[in-house]
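Lecture 7 notes. Example A: sequence first, then its structure tokens.
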Amino acid sequence: MNLIDRITVNPKVCMGKPCIRGRRLSVDFILELLAAGWTYEEIQEQYDLQREDILAVLEYAKRIIEEEKVYRIPIEIK
């Protein structure tokens, strides 16, 4: 299974947020835990996940950010 296949988007689950397949754990929730300093092991133990689930969250986030476009808006100060 491709890592990204572990992430699903279903409008009937978690209000359509991307989640770990078969779980009601959203990508942004897992990212929030990682940003707060949780280790992979702590997340795995607390939420009964596999390491590949967490890696899939990171891969999903990476792909979203890769597609982001940033535009410079010039501001004139008078």
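Example B, a different protein, same format:
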Amino acid sequence: MATGYLDKNGDPYIEIEISGPLTEKTKLVCLMDTGFTGFLSIPMLQAFPIGLILTGTIPVTLADGSTHHKLTCLGMVQLGEERQVGLEVIEPNSNLPLLGMDFLRKFKKKLLINPQEGTFELL
């Protein structure tokens, strides 16, 4: 089980650790975004210091229906004691890492939000 928090707007955030193939783990606070179907979206300015290696590009369809080609990397993400390798989308114009539905699937987690306490859990 991992616990995150809800910010003043009620948005769920959780801390993960991420590493590239040749680097030490780096902590990231990420927004849990169930509207994002991918594993992890990470701002370009945060991705390269971590040592993530580019693997290619993928087309990404945004909420407005537009499609953009995005750079991708593979990286190791750790949540508590659990680790998973996933495809990370590199966002050149973002400053916020996002965890998506593929993250929940790979880690086999359920999202339980408790707005009264301002927390959420990944069970």
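Note on Example B: The chain has a mean pLDDT of 94. The CA atoms of residues 37 and 101 lie 5 Å apart.
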